[in-house]
Design goal:
Elements lengths: L1 H8 L6 H25 L3 H9 L4 H12 L1 H16 L3 H6 L10 H11 L2 H26 L6
Length: 149
């Protein structure tokens, strides 16, 4: 079935959609877990009160629950993006290592290391480190604003 999809519907192997699929498969587990914890932390009592005030279930979700979960949703999105940015294993297995076609930052580090370009490896590693640290600081500021560290 995989070869049928790859040949007739959309190409994943050695293509950009393969990068997206690989990163989605790896990151979705973490995002779902974070979103579950976020929504579990919201009391269902708020939705029940909204229902007694005339809101439908859908309106209660969109006007009560979703705004209450916005920090958790934003945090899950940012952390998932940062995790996907550093994904190497699944990407290299599905999309391969083709320079300028399926090259992500971790794949570029790998290719430069294989070619012996240590300057490029150091530069790309520092870029990846800076992006990761910046993302972590932004998430911490957004999620833990007003709480003691």
């Amino acid at each position: 079935m995989g070869s049928f999809i790859n040949e007739n519907v959309i190409r994943f192997v050695f293509e950009v959609p393969g990068i997206v699929l690989a990163q989605f498969a790896v990151v979705s587990v973490m995002a779902i877990k974070m979103l579950k914890e976020t929504f579990d932390g919201i009391s269902p009592r708020y939705e029940k009160v909204a229902r007694t005030l005339g809101y439908t279930e859908l309106e209660a979700f969109f006007f009560i629950t979703l705004p209450a979960a916005k920090r958790g949703i934003l945090g899950a999105a940012l952390l998932s993006w940062a995790r996907a940015l550093g994904e190497f294993g699944a990407t290299i297995m599905l999309a391969g290592t083709m320079r300028f076609k399926t090259e992500t930052l971790p794949v570029a580090i790998y290719l430069n290391l294989a070619a012996g370009n240590l300057g490029g490896v150091a530069t790309l590693s520092i870029i990846l480190l800076l992006v990761s640290c910046t993302t972590q600081m932004v998430v911490r500021k957004l999620l833990y604003r007003g709480f003691a560290p």
